[in-house]
Amino acid sequence: MYGKKQTMSKNNKIPYNMPFIVGNELDYISKAVMENGHISGNGPFTKKCQTWLEQNLGCPKALLTHSCTAALEMAAILCDIQPGDEVIMPSFTFVSTANAIVLRGGVPVFVDIRPDTLNLNEKRIDSAITSKTKAIIPVHYAGIPCAIDEIMEVAEKNKLLVVEDAAQGYLSRYKGRSLGTLGHLGCLSFHETKNIISGEGGALLINDERLMNRAEIIWEKGTDRSQFLRGEVDKYSWQDIGSSYLPSELISAFLFAQLEKAASIISKRSKVFFIYYEGLKDLEDKGKIQLPSLQGGTDGNGHIFFIVGPDAEQSQGLIQHLKSEGIDAITHYVALHSSKAGKKFGRISGKMKVTNDISQRVIRLPLYYGMQEQDVDRVIQAIRKFFS
Question: Which of 349, 301, 322, 359 is nearest to 170 (CA)?
Fold first, then answer.
């Protein structure tokens, strides 16, 4: 709650996530209504947020959306996905990554992940490419960057587009560059479970100038309304397919207040991340768990702290143990290729050994802005107690 520390006592539950207010969120919402007189999409706060993203991420063009799902769906349209076209992606991801392709009539092609980063295995992409392949969607799991240089090299060689699913990667960096700005397109999330939040919300980052004009038209329901508002045309009309992808100004006002404090939010989450890491490292050294990979050349954002248990049975046992201690730890994705819809709409390329294994063993630990050091220590000690 605003103005109060979000601490958890020994007798209280530690939630997996907790939304928060950090600055001028409520003031800006009031300003949007009472001063700006604009609460529908593409108003002053939307423009402020987009400018902030462009300047701070180094992105040529940013468009706010009502969700990362919407950003992915826009990206699928911009990639010109047609019925039967194939798009390579990991199976270890949220359904929105695949749904965006299926909604255009495309086919998700599921490729295995790496055991260290839990990201798309860049060495498996070549063998998944066919004459129908149109794009690659790498997912930066837990804010840990994919091997994006290698992925872009494969894409360039095969004339494919790359859409970064950076829903979890906001303000993570790879070799000094922000995730979401390395592919042709990047998709961000500001869902309440993410680092920077607006309840629901997202953004599409357009890094290829060939896609910029069409992106703006798709974003404005298929019209050239944005050009009209800038005085570039004397009236606006229907130009292309599109939909209502804009967030309201109330969402954008809340988000802009969070963006103003983004550095301190990321710093605090990263501090929690490394308290976990240091407190559990010896369990990894003893072979009891696997911790997130700390790759050279990357700068993480403290989004998710996960552990990988020794086997599925012990992982489930640990979750139940933490629950008995008042700690809300959860698993992550049911692998898409094993789901009903995944089998119907997608196909597998190669063996999914790592995905099948990891998806049964990964555990996400509580991590949120208001989390205090004593809460983190309580989680660490509960894990140590289980393995002792």
Answer: 301
325 and 377 Cβ atoms separated by less than 8 Å: no
Distance CA 32, CA 68 (A): 23
Place of tokens 């012990």: 314
User: How many whole angstroms separate alpha carbon 234 and alpha carbon 42?
Assistant: 19
Q: Which helix (H) or strand (E) holds 373?
A: helix 373-387
pLDDT at residue 231, as a whole number: 87
**Block residue for tokens 């963006």:** 259
Angle, helices 212-219/68-78, rounded to nearest 10 degrees: 130
Q: Which two tokens stand for residue 340?
A: 């009903």
Tokens 């229907």 appear where? 238
Torsion of CA 340, 344, 350, 354, to 10 degrees: -20
On the question of pLDDT at 161 being above 80, the answer is yes
Q: Half-sphere exposure of residue 106, counting CA atoms within 13 Å on the CB side? A: 29
What is the separation, in whole angstroms, between the first and last Cα of the chain?
36
CA atoms of 173 and 319, how far apart (whole Å): 31
Distance CA 217, CA 226 (A): 8
Written as six digits, the tokens of 20 are 């928060």
d(CA 20, CA 149): 35
pTM: 0.94
pLDDT at 7: 45
Domains delineated in the chain: 25-260 (3.40.640.10), 263-387 (3.90.1150.10)
DSSP conformation class of 238: B
- Element housing 100 (H / E): helix 95-102
Question: What integer pLDDT is reported at residue 6 of this predicted model?
Answer: 46
Give the count of beta carbons closer than 10 Å to the beta carbon of residue 91: 27
Question: Which pLDDT belongs to residue 299?
Answer: 82
Map residue 244 onto helix, strand or coil: strand
Which residues are within 8 A (CB) of 54 and not within 5 positions of it... i.e. 6 or more apart? Answer: 60, 61, 62
Enter the tokens of residue 195. Answer: 């680092």
Closest by CA position to 124, among listed 154, 159, 145: 154
H/E element, 87: strand 86-90
